[in-house]
């Protein structure tokens, strides 16, 4: 639908999920895209899905190792396609956590 979603930290008990133009997230350098499949949902249905995800990802629950933007992406991908993101995407967090 021409949008990209991410999850980031802030100090408030409200959603940390945000919407940006694809590949242009302020403060980050775009590196690569990973094809996780396709989802055929009406835009309003997808919006509801993202709003539901946003209620589970509050900015004050962000944790660099255990609940970061890559965990969010993996969760979204699993729920929409049944596929996980490749292991290398969040490798550093897993290494530090173990």
Automatic annotation (TrEMBL):
Keyword Hydrolase belongs to the record:
yes
PROSITE patterns with a match to the protein in the record: PPPDE
* Domain of life per record: Eukaryota
Q: What Pfam families would the database entry show? A: Peptidase_C97 (PF05903)
Task: Give all residue intervals belonging to the PPPDE domain.
Answer: 1-98
Annotated GO biological processes are: protein deubiquitination; proteolysis
GO function terms (MF aspect): deubiquitinase activity
Going by the UniProt record, its keywords in alphabetical order are: Hydrolase, Protease
The family annotation for this protein states: Belongs to the DeSI family.
Its name, as the record gives it, is: DeSI-like protein
Print the organism lineage.
Eukaryota, Viridiplantae, Streptophyta, Embryophyta, Tracheophyta
